Amino acid sequence: MHSSHRLLLLSLLPLALSSCIDNTRLKPRAATGAVPISTFGYTGLLGPLNWAGLSPANSACSTSLTQSPINIDPSIISLLPSAPVLDFPSVAAAEFENLGSTIEVITNGTTTIDGTTFNLKQFHFHAPSEHRINEEFFPLEVHMVHESATGELAVVALMFQLSSTETTELLTKVTENIDKIQTPGTRTETGALDFGAVVEHVQTTPLFTYKGSLTTPPCAEGLTFIIPQAPLPVNVETFNKIKSTVKFNSRYTQNDLGKANILDVGCTAAAGAKIEAGKAVGGNGTAVAPAPVTQPAAGKQPSHSVAPPVVAPPAASAAPVEAPASALPVPKASSAVKEEAATGAGAQPVHHCIMGACHTVPAAPARRARRWFQLYV
Ligand SMILES: [Zn+2]
């Protein structure tokens, strides 16, 4: 990553309201000791497709080329050359909190990787897993978040597989009082925690490693993931306790490392599809006023979020578009889209398939569609 880009991202981090960096130097706990409730979510306008729209600090979510989670392709993602050394002391109990976006255990320990010591700050849960290994997802993923003395972040990401014959006792003990933190902002204590089985698993299993990003806003780059090739077991009862509390908190799979941000690609394709739809109606791709908007629930949407311009779809599919009240004036952007449609009239069409949805779009509008994206996200 370009150094100035990295500096920009790091300077924005204190604005983050993210669980993945919770209790690290980038997001220290408030002096009041209150459990911080995340301001992002996994559904609708608060969900991952709109994280970049929630705050300018989250721009990496839609522009970065090294976003997490990814599908771990064993033929591409390398293995850690030597096993790390983990030292996670047993504790009689640990603080266990519901942040709204995840449930989290505050604990201590160290992981030493190639001579660098990372301090364990917390671990939290994602259901289903965020990463996939050789395309396969897992029911549960635990992120053990570490920070070095220089502020570098490393996450040991453990996959869990359902088992009818065995389980990981650590999770049984963690969830002993989970019924007491069913509401975001609440906390309780875990049972006695013994990390022995987890430490042995990490130190004896081949470990994938790559440099990716936070999987939650602000999606900042530069984070090292360490992911055991094999999952740990979890029984159905423990898994269901976790799932019913977390509900769903998995960011969609990102593009391969170094390739275009998949949200950027999707926005470009969507803009092209709208132009095509406009052509189908008006014959010349004329941009018109936005579709009707529906107000989000009070207090649910940050005031700085903006709505993209909308080129009218065919009448049969003109469903209302949900957007915040603070939408920017549309005419200027609509003009840009209109201009784009006009200049792209003679271009060869390109077939785009994004997340299973395929559209034939003109090639030329892509450049301007990207400008539309930059203006409004
Ligand atoms: Zn996480």
TrEMBL record:
Its cofactor is Zn(2+). Residues 1-18 form the signal peptide. Its EC number is 4.2.1.1. GO terms for molecular function: carbonate dehydratase activity; zinc ion binding. Residues 292-312 are annotated as: Disordered. Residues 38-279 form the Alpha-carbonic anhydrase domain. Belongs to the alpha-carbonic anhydrase family. Reversible hydration of carbon dioxide. This is Carbonic anhydrase. It comes from Pyronema omphalodes (strain CBS 100304) (Pyronema confluens).
